[in-house]
């Protein structure tokens, strides 16, 4: 075990006394938030009417967090440190809120919660109260980039914040319940990606307070040697601060924290002086302290401090139980608020001096309001990377291969604030051109074989690890501190981060619409590739386009979905998304070769509109159409065009309108989404009474969900993925899900009144085609050449 010499106390008696009092002030405020609606300074005896009617919030982790924050403040002042703090324990906001309030920054942002008795009353009342704030470190919490509503992401957020921030120290308190989650377990490996020359440092503090809501925590109940071996095996150098006696614990923490900061600085100085970035054993701290430390020892004959009963509200009924009202009052008065706050209700002067000043205050650190530091990307001209499409639908190109060349130049121009993230799939997703600008980040061991196409480098900026959770956590921490990036992943497994996306979208919604002091941050850009319709060897497990359904459930203020049909459209969409702020942009684009339809000028126009009629594929010029053939997605677009070609050959007089959708939210009414079309514009594309055969990349129900209020919804017939698949050829997969050209043409014949009867022979031929092509696929294991190399002939 790493040892710290505590024989010579770090803190003199006066400093120790002040720090302990400051800690008491934090704990008093944390408890007051949970219980008090009035009498905030206990200047009269506590009465039932002073107690909140509903007691909500969590006490258990707050004293430990406040303890750490007080000690961080000492070193920030002593060493002029640049520190961001991330609270991992669930519902741990009272500690961070109390610290922010005592630093004075909370009142600067929210003047009505001033540093006086009236302001403290409002500060208490707002907590876990209707119209107020929640018990997590929500966006309303100054200094927070991590809400903690869902556990497991604190450490990955911390590393994301540290990347490319060489002066920053991110202290992450990891809850011992949180440490049981899968995302947190993988994020310990983030230390293999931290470059001590160009990056900041992360100091994890594992808080072992022993209990979750009603159960012990695993890491608190395994032998010391086993825990140390686990953390050492993760690549850390753990230091242990353990106990429950405040004076001794203050001395231990002061010595240990100062030693760890010194170790971090020594690692960085050595690497920066030598110019050699090697993976060190970064220090970390294990803080073992009682759950609900300094709270009531016992309530109603049951142990509270040091047990699971301290997790939430340790005294559940003070307003209705006179005995427990006295217990609560005794607990609060032990902190001696009369000695902590002056006659006006402000923290006394000698304690105010313990907090850092200005932007060195943890709650005021600009990295936790990343838009303050954000710089626009130096963007290349995306049009220069466009494909010469030739005649529409005549050339096959991999869209992501084209995108990779553009991203390479984006990376090259922004080598300190742009990264690409992906789970071991950058090469698989045809983005290898990025490696010309930067290789993959790697600070673990190297092997000679890595030199032959391994693309690994300590200076790399492509972040690959086979944990979508960790990657998304890094990415969120990176953008929330003002930097830019793109995350490329397989479509079927982007679901791994469903809930992380949900949490980030909720953060953006709150920050964007309600908190003017939070500046806009770069968007999360998700490139969804390796798509459902091209899973020839992976099969059914890799066929799931349902992430789009998850995205559409979130606020229209923060989500966008784009389905560019070809490479030029993908470039236009990517340029737009990388420049944007405060969104989650989802781009659906496959890595396999696909037909190209639009030259660059036409692609820009089409993507700017988000939806439009392709005149070259339509036959209704100057007349009302008989049928609208619509599509969204690369394979649906090709199959729809192929169906149009069949219909034009079989029925030359049929008036067809071809509509392609890039921006999926254009389908919604403008009253429900900022990108939505007015009813008049929607009707001008889709008509009010003609059949619409809509071929969709994902599940058909999603299009109905987005368009259910439209006048022509009853005539909207959507084809999409129907959860049918195996080791199929591309056309066979399309056929069994009825998104193929033959099924679309049959549906059009059935829906157009003028084709009833006259289209019977054509339908028979189309059914024969389906049978023949499926049989060929099963016999030969491949689609026929005329399918594999199909092109548009008009």
Helix-strand makeup class: alpha/beta
Low-confidence parts lasting 5 or more residues at pLDDT below 50? none
Compute the separation of the termini in Å: 75 Å
CATH superfamily of the largest domain: Thiamin diphosphate (ThDP)-binding fold, Pyr/PP domains
**Helical content, roughly?**
25-40%
Overall number of domains: 3
Structure overview:
The structure is a single chain. The strands form six sheets. The chain has a six-stranded parallel beta sheet with strand order 12-9-13-14-16-15, with helices on both faces. A five-stranded parallel beta sheet has the order 1-2-3-5-4, sandwiched between helices. It has 25 helices and 22 strands. α1 crosses α5 (117-126) and α6 crosses α14. It folds into three domains: 13-372, Rossmann fold (3-Layer(aba) Sandwich); 382-594, Thiamin diphosphate (ThDP)-binding fold, Pyr/PP domains (Rossmann fold); 610-788, Rossmann fold (3-Layer(aba) Sandwich), CATH 3.40.50.920. β6 (298-299) and β7 form a beta hairpin. Helices cover 37% and strands 13% of the residues. It is elongated. With 794 residues, it is of the alpha/beta class.
Name its key features.
alpha/beta, aldehyde-lyase activity, elongated, Rossmann fold, 794 residues, EC 4.1.2.-, five-stranded parallel beta sheet
């Amino acid at each position: 075990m790493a040892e710290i010499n505590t024989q010579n106390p770090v803190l003199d008696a006066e400093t120790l006394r002040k720090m302990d009092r400051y800690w008491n002030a934090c704990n008093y405020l944390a408890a007051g938030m949970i219980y008090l609606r009035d009498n905030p300074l206990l200047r009269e005896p506590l009465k039932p009417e002073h107690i909140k009617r509903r007691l909500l919030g969590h006490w258990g982790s707050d004293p430990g967090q406040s303890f750490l924050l007080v000690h961080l403040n000492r070193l920030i002042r002593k060493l002029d440190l640049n520190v961001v703090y991330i609270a991992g324990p669930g519902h741990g906001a009272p500690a961070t809120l109390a610290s922010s309030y005592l630093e004075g920054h909370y009142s600067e942002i929210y003047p009505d919660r001033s540093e006086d008795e009236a302001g403290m009353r409002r500060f208490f009342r707002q907590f876990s109260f209707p119209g107020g704030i929640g018990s997590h470190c929500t966006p309303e919490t100054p200094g927070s980039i991590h809400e903690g509503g869902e556990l497991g992401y604190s450490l990955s957020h911390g590393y994301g914040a540290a990347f490319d921030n060489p002066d920053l120290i991110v202290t992450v308190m990891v809850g011992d319940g949180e440490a049981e989650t899968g995302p947190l377990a993988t994020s310990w490996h983030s230390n293999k990606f931290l470059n001590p020359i160009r990056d900041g440092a992360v100091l994890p503090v594992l808080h072992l307070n022993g209990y979750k809501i009603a159960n012990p925590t695993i890491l608190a109940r395994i032998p010391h040697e086993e825990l140390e071996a686990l953390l050492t095996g993760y690549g850390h150098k753990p230091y242990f601060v353990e106990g429950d006696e405040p004076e001794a614990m203050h001395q231990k923490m002061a010595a240990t924290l100062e030693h760890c900061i010194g170790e971090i600085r020594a690692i960085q100085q050595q690497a920066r002086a030598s110019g050699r970035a090697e993976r060190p054993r970064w220090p970390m701290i294990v803080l073992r302290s009682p759950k609900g430390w300094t709270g009531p020892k016992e309530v109603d004959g049951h142990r509270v401090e040091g047990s699971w009963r301290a997790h939430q509200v340790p005294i559940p009924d003070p307003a209705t139980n006179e005995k427990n009202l006295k217990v609560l009052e005794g607990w609060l008065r032990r902190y001696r608020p009369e000695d902590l706050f002056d006659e006006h209700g402000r923290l006394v002067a000698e304690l105010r001096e313990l907090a850092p000043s200005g932007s060195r205050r943890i709650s005021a650190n600009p990295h936790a309001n990343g838009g303050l530091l954000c710089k626009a990307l130096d963007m290349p001209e995306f049009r220069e990377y466009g494909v010469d499409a030739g005649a529409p639908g005549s050339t096959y190109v991999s869209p992501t291969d084209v995108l990779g060349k553009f991203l390479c130049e984006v990376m090259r121009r922004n080598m300190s604030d742009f990264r690409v993230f992906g789970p071991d799939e950058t090469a698989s997703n045809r983005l290898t051109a990025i490696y010309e600008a930067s290789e993959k980040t790697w600070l673990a061991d190297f092997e000679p074989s890595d030199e032959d196409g391994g693309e690994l480098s300590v200076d790399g900026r492509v972040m690959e690890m086979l944990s979508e959770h960790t990657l998304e956590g890094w990415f969120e921490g990176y953008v929330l501190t003002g930097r830019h990036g793109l995350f490329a992943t397989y479509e079927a497994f982007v679901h791994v981060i469903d809930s992380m996306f949900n949490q980030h979208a909720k953060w953006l919604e709150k920050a964007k619409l309600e908190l003017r002091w939070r500046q806009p941050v770069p968007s999360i850009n998700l490139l969804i590739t390796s798509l459902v319709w091209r899973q020839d060897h992976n099969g059914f497990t890799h066929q799931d386009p349902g992430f789009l359904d998850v995205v559409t459930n979130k606020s229209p203020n923060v989500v966008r979905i784009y389905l560019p049909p070809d490479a030029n459209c993908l470039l236009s969409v990517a340029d737009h998304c990388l420049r944007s702020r405060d969104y989650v942009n989802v781009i659906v684009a496959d890595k396999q070769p696909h037909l190209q339809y639009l030259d660059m000028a036409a692609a820009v126009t089409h993507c700017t509109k988000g939806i439009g009629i392709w005149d070259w594929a339509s036959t209704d010029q100057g007349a009302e159409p008989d049928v609208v053939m619509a599509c969204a997605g690369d394979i649906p677009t090709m199959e729809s065009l192929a169906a149009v070609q069949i219909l034009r050959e079989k029925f030359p007089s049929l008036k067809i309108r071809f509509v392609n959708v890039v921006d999926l939210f254009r389908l919604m009414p403008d009253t429900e989404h900022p990108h939505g079309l007015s009813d008049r514009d929607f009707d001008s594309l889709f008509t009010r009474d003609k059949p619409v055969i809509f071929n969709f990349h994902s599940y058909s129900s999603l299009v109905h969900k987005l368009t259910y209020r439209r006048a022509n919804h009853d005539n909207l017939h959507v084809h999409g993925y129907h959860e049918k698949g195996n080791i199929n050829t591309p056309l066979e997969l399309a056929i069994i899900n009825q998104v193929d050209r033959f099924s679309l043409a049959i549906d059009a014949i059935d829906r157009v009144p003028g084709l009833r009867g006259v289209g019977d022979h054509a339908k028979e031929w189309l059914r024969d085609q389906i049978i023949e092509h499926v049989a060929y696929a099963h016999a030969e294991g491949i689609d026929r050449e005329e399918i594999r190399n199909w092109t548009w002939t008009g």
